[in-house]
Amino acid sequence: MPLYEFRCRTCDETFELRRPMSxxxxxxxxxxxxxxxxxxxxxxxxxxxxxxxxxxxxARPAGGCGAGCGCAH
Length: 73
Ligand SMILES: [Zn+2]
Fold this sequence. Notes:
Blueprint: E1 3-8, E2 14-18, E3 37-40
Antiparallel strand pairs: 1-2, 1-3
The structure holds zinc ion.
């Protein structure tokens, strides 16, 4: 579940909330109980959205026998 950053417009407190992406823009309550915190744009919001492979799969070594090879080395 992505982590979102919020800031309370009443006391200026910033805090983080973990919530489903579908509720990302829903109103949040700050730790002091004020009910008008707004979500900040944060790099955390993209966590879990895209996962690219860190590196390409290694190429098979050239010249080796395959699984179906009958030689006895
Ligand atoms: Zn507050």
